[in-house]
Amino acid sequence: MTASTAVVSSRPSFYSIVPNRDRADDLFRSYIAFLEERNGDLFADDGFAHREAMMDTLGEHDAIYRGGFDNAVFNRNYVKLQDTDLSDEQLALLAFVKMNAGEAYGVEVMSEARADLMARPEPLYVLERVLGREENYHTKMLVGAADHFDGIEVEGAWRPAWPLKLLIFALAKFPPSMFHPILLGAEISGVFTMNWMLGRLSTMFPDDPGVRESMEHRIIEVLIDEVGHVAYNRICVGTAGMRAAKVLARGVSKSHDDLTPELNVLGYAEARKGLASFDYADLPEEVRRKAWFA
Q1: Residues 6+ apart with CB under 8 A from 179
Q2: pLDDT tens-digit readout, 59-112
Q3: Nearest alpha carbon to residue 293 among 121, 250, 107, 283
Q4: Fewer CB atoms inside 10 Å of the end CB: C or N, the chain?
Q5: Helix (H), strand (E) at residue 12
Q6: Which of 35-49, 155-169, 209-223, 237-251 is most confident?
Q7: Both ends of the chain: CA-CA distance in Å?
């Protein structure tokens, strides 16, 4: 099996226990090999070479949303959603930058809280350190969507809502037996939300398809990474942890009422009922083909 070949069972599922968990280190090493192929040198001080090239490619998308978005209106709603006459496209941008802010907050807090663990040499912790660096790229991918909206500068003081603070506190303070089930639930919810947003984008930007394609590209690249993050955490949990993760995924999904209300205006509140049946097979073929999954 080459590093670029996804590790899958005959019926891959987010909620099935990984077979041969006694071979966890072998699976982790397989994942590290995949990440080296996807990202380049995982420990270079100046970032992942392949990922930097990806960011350059994303930056070459120069389409501009012709519907316009006043910068003051954007920043007012970035601090707190309050206007009721925003277009779907404007709401999508706000969702992107707020998801970016949430990712950035989580990465910063977790990096500080788990610095000693992530410095350890075991494959489990090596991977945790690498995946944290991938999350940093996600923030750049998402906030980069603002480049397609002429005159937009992110200026508002974003503050994490209490559900995110609670989640990150739990991840930072709880022991490993609880850390991975909590993170798995959050990752599954994140994959569901991103996948839903990808589908929702297909109806937007009818006059600016280049903007839509760029935003879709960004989400697809994040999804490819996040599927691997789900797989990593699945290797780390047992049956009880998997049950807890499924419950936690629902809770994290509901937290978007406070974290990203733009999603609910776009229809997410109703759509999240589908989380109960959502699974690996519901992802786009491109994501399943390019992602690592065990």
Answers
A1: 171
A2: 998 999 999 999 999 999 998 899 999 999 999 999 999 887 776 666 666 666
A3: 283
A4: N
A5: none
A6: 209-223
A7: 13
Please give the Cα distance from 103 to 194 (Å, whole number). 13
User: How large a percentage of the chain has pLDDT more than 70?
Assistant: 84
Integer Cα distance of 48 and 286 in angstroms: 22
Closest to 150 (Cα-Cα) out of 90, 265, 69, 91: 69
Q: Which amino acid, 2?
A: T
What pTM value is reported for the model?
A: 0.88
Q: Identify the burial level of 70 via C-beta atoms within 10 angstroms of its C-beta, where 0-12 means exposed, 13-18 middle and 19 or more buried.
A: exposed
H helix intervals, the chain? 24-39, 49-59, 71-79, 88-113, 115-118, 123-143, 162-173, 176-201, 209-235, 239-254, 256-259, 261-265, 268-271, 285-290
> Cα 227 vs. chain centroid, distance in angstroms?
9
Q: What angle do CA 216, 246, 234 make, to 5 degrees?
A: 75
- List the structure tokens of 94: 């706000």
- Half-sphere exposure for 74 (CA within 13 Å, toward CB): 21
Which phi and psi (to 5°) does residue 35 adopt?
Answer: -65, -35
Average pLDDT over residues 143-166: 80
Distance CA(203)–CA(198), nearest Å, equals 10
CB distance 63 to 214 below 8 Å: yes
Tell me how crowded residue 188 is: count the other CB atoms within 10 A of its CB.
27
pLDDT in tens, 127-147: 888 888 898 888 889 889 999
